[in-house]
Fold this protein.
Amino acid sequence: MKKLFLFLLVLFLTGTMSAQQLSWRFANPRIITTVVATVPYQNLQFDVQVQSSQAGTYLWTGTIKLNFNNTTFNNTASTWGATKVGIFNSTLNSAGNPMYALTKTITGTAPNRVLNIGLTGDVNVYPNGPSAEDFVEMPTTWTTIVTITARLAVVTGDAIAGMDFLESGMNGFQQYITGPSTNALYTNPNIFDTRDFVNSFTGRFYSAFHGWSSLGGSTANVQVNNWAANYSTTVWEDASIAQTDNTAALANNLYIGNGSAIVPVLTVPANKWLTVAGTLTNSGTAANLVVANNGSLINPTAGVPATVTRNIAPGEWHFISAPTSNATSDMFVDQYLQTLNEGSGLYEDLYALGAPLVPGKGYALWSTDGPAVYMGPLNATASYPYTAGGSGWNLVGNPYASSLDWNVAKGGNPNLLDATY
């Protein structure tokens, strides 16, 4: 047993067991227009990036295979663009030829269509062996190998990309030069990033590199975004709603996150409005969807985790109402929280810890602590039963993550109560 351990240790220290393994991921998605014979076409464009676990390996052949939703995308290879990028495209080899040839085909039968991209080194320099003059040393940091432009066949704004790496078709097919006219396979299997386009909407995207982009462009390679269009939206990386103040940014469905353990953050800043008509999906926690004070989020999906901030000036009374279903009196410990007794018309102190703040019910608060931060499932609907008895007054609150400026809403009428928010 000791000899076996020593043998494995030697293999590890000498690098024999340290494999030259490739990792792959998608990056920088956007919606972009291409124009062919004056006809504009809408596309999902993105980068395929690669990195190697070790320096010093020179690519001989690379294979990229992508499953895709064949009803969302055009099924003809000529309508897809695939462009070598950076070091994989810009340098000629010692024979004066491009380092790599690129091939592009679409195979398979619906619904299992596959885009196949191949990068192959120049056979004329194959006898030279590994050399930076003739081949690309695979980077050890994420680097774009190709940019893909996939023409959309469905441009309603609600189509799903349904796209991911075909891992079985890529594992065991990546090769590097090891000597004159010799090559070896990179370790099988490859490593694939968990973030993909399987559940991604193709109406509007956000990526940090390109910003917001949506359908609707008519000029080649000019990116647009129309918040007035009700496009289903994918938040790929940390984003902030950038619509004109106090006008609604519209999204039919909205998806935060793409299957990865690293979920982006979507922020609705002050004075920005976001209205989701369909399903809002936050695949992260409350920290991944943030509604700032004076921001507005309207959506019909109950239970979406979010963080909602409401600025409450200390040293005065406010009417408040919780935009989340899990809020309790614990948020206001050492402050003065009251509930209205509709029967008597009198306010009563709420001392109990853990008392739920009922969605749709208003409360009176004398604040000593400033902002209230609600973290939990958003209310999509609320039904607070009013009481007809007693003095007839009820304190009904705003149950949504949408600020109300009651001074504007009440038209300056001093006889109307302040807002619950």
